[in-house]
Amino acid sequence: MKVAAAFIVVLCCLAASHALTCKEGPRFYSPEQMDAGLGHVVGVDRYKRPYFLSGLSFYSLGSASLKHVTTGPSGTWGCDSYNKVYKFVAGNWKVASGYTLQQVDAGGPGQVVGIQSSSNRTQCLSEARALAFYGTGSLTWSYLSNVLMYVSCGPETCWGVTNDYKVYVAKIRDNCGRATGWQYVSRGMKMIDVGTDGSVYALSTSGLVYQRTAFSSRSYYGTRWTNIPMCMPIKHLTYDLKNLWVVTESRLLLVCTP
After folding, report:
1. Which residues, other chains included, contact 159 with Cβ-Cβ below 8 Å and sequence gap of 6+?
2. What is the pTM of this model?
3. Are 12 and 230 contacting, i.e. CB atoms less than 8 angstroms apart?
4. CATH number of the domain within which 211 lies
5. Which helix (H) or strand (E) holds 7?
6. What family does the database annotate (predicted)?
7. Total domains present in the chain
8. Each residue of 115-172: pLDDT tens digit?
9. H-helix or E-strand containing 52?
């Protein structure tokens, strides 16, 4: 198994050598989903067990069973198979009453956003409310957008993907203020991730990795997608501090750097 993994990593390095250098990440058995933010890296495995990275190893992160985790300025959050929302507080996961969400993202400048499980509407939790929650009481979310399947926010914009794989972007005012208007960007993507530095990466329906490029004062959402070659289909990705973390369909964790 180790020999096979090493061979795959060599192929990945050759495939992506002109853009990024990829290597096998710290050993993470059967990763399913990852998120990175502000230097922290968290993830869940196929058995819905959450982990965090410290040094060169992943360690158990609390005892909850979660399908999705995220970390950022407002803490570490997650949701379970019943779409209940959790925040990591004092060494364990605390469930929050209120909306049920199928996916959450804490990558913005303070707010937490998520996709409501009952309607696929995007909801936003302000920085003040997110930071203040310590495990007691319910959370009050604010409506952010219409139907999305996946959402991710950065310093100035939020990006989302719909059920029919269309990509939209909006500038967000005043933390959880209303969006300036969701702008259609392209189609063919199934997930998207915005780094805390504003970098945007996306995963196509066929498992190809793309970076949004050519940002300018005239186009705050860029003008094209640039393919990042990989040696095999990718099932999940996340980006932070010049590190692109990718989970392959065969559940091998790679980390790619310039």
Report:
1. 151, 152, 153, 167, 168, 169, 185, 192, 194, 200
2. 0.92
3. yes
4. 2.120.10.30
5. helix 2-15
6. Belongs to the tectonin family.
7. 1
8. 999 999 999 999 999 999 999 989 999 999 878 999 999 998 999 999 999 999 998 8
9. strand 50-54
